[in-house]
Each structure stands twice: as C-alpha cells, then as structure tokens.
C-alpha cells in the first residue's frame, strides 16, 4: 500500500512534503483553528520539523502515516490537510484507518473539507481499507458535518470526550 495523489472535482490531494511547510504555516496560522484541538499555530520552522517526522513515517511498521495537503485547483493554493493513520491488518484481518482533516479559515464554508474527506475515504476504500473512523468532539458541528458528508455516522462510543464516527456497518 502506497500513498498517491487523489483528485476530486475541485481539489487535488497531494502527498505531504516538507516543502509544503511554509505555505501551510500561513494556511493553518489562525489560532481559531485550535479551538477544538488545543495548542497554537506552528511557525514555518516548527511545521517543517513536524513534516519531516510525518514524511519519515511511523516508527511502528504495522502503522502507516498518510498525509496530504489540499490544493484548490482553481486558485492553485493550499487550503488544508487530510490524514489517515492506517493500522495494517494481521493476515486475514481488515485494515483500519483513523482519518482527520483541517481547512484554513479563509477556505471554510465552501465544502472543501467535505469534498476532501469524501475523496480520502473513497481512495482508502479502493486501497482495501474497510474500517474508516474519525473522532470528533460532540460540539464540533462543522467537523461532524464533514464526517457525515464522507459517509461516516456517529456511534455510541466515546474516547477522551470525542464521539467515534465510522462507516455504517462497521463494529
């Protein structure tokens, strides 16, 4: 299983590269983006260091870290990220992915996160990933709408105050 670019109607999901750090620091620079996740925006240097670690991959050989930047084709600008942490299955078992997304404040409200998440989930399914999940705070209505648009549904499972969303029919 290898990461690849993903095309949607308006977007190109480009595999993350260290060179994206400077532009992405500006995209993700609004402190309001951290209201649900905590922390503060990264400087370009700190984001470059983070991207170096992400691109190097998980130290656990049974886990893949797949990260993409979201490029809005009409603007030729980066607008956010999507990611999947894929747990490789033991022989005879299914692979599972935990997905997440973030879109910079100027691009919110345009359906970009939903389109990117739909493209990501469809691509993961095409790679043989059958279990796709996201964890979302119950009061994060925008992220819940993105998860629903990607085909995920809320479950009764809570983890650290977040609701687990998953594709229907999964355990």
Description:
By secondary structure, this protein is an alpha+beta fold. The protein has one domain (6-166): 3-Layer(aba) Sandwich (Aminopeptidase), CATH 3.40.630. It contains four helices and eight strands; from the N terminus they run E-E-H-H-E-E-E-H-E-H-E-E. The protein has helices at residues 21-27, 44-56, 112-126, 141-149, and strands at residues 6-7, 11-15, 63-72, 77-87, 95-103, 129-136, 153-159, 162-166. It has an eight-stranded mixed beta sheet with strand order 1-2-3-4-5-6-8-7, sandwiched between helices. Strand 4 and strand 5 form a beta hairpin. Helix 1 packs across helix 2 and helix 3 crosses helix 4. The longest helix is centred in the C-terminal third of the chain and has 15 residues, at 112-126. The two termini are 23 Å apart. The mean pLDDT is 93.
Topology:
Blueprint: E1 6-7, E2 11-15, H1 21-27, H2 44-56, E3 63-72, E4 77-87, E5 95-103, H3 112-126, E6 129-136, H4 141-149, E7 153-159, E8 162-166
Parallel strand pairs: 5-6
Antiparallel strand pairs: 1-2, 2-3, 3-4, 4-5, 6-8, 7-8
Short description:
The protein has 171 residues and is an alpha+beta fold.
Low-confidence stretches: none
* End-to-end C-alpha gap: 23 Å
Number of strands: 8
Secondary-structure class: alpha+beta
Biggest sheet features: 8 strands, mixed
In percent, how helical is the residue content? Answer: 25-40%
Mean of residue pLDDT? 93
């Amino acid at each position: 299983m290898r990461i690849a670019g993903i095309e949607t109607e308006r977007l190109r999901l480009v595999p993350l590269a260290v060179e994206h750090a400077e532009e992405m620091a500006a995209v993700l620079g609004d402190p309001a983006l951290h209201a649900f996740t905590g922390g503060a925006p990264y400087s370009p240097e700190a984001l470059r260091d983070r991207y170096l670690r992400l691109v190097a991959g998980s130290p656990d050989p049974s886990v893949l870290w797949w990260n993409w930047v979201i490029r809005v084709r009409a603007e030729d600008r980066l607008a956010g990220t999507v990611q999947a942490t894929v747990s490789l299955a033991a022989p005879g078992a299914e692979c599972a992915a935990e997905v997440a997304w973030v879109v910079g404040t100027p691009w919110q409200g345009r359906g970009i996160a939903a389109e990117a998440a739909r493209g990501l989930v469809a691509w993961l399914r095409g790679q043989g990933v059958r279990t796709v999940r996201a964890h979302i705070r119950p009061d994060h209505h925008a992220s819940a709408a993105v998860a629903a648009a990607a085909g995920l549904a809320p479950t009764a499972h809570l983890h650290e105050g977040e609701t687990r969303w998953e594709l229907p029919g999964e355990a």
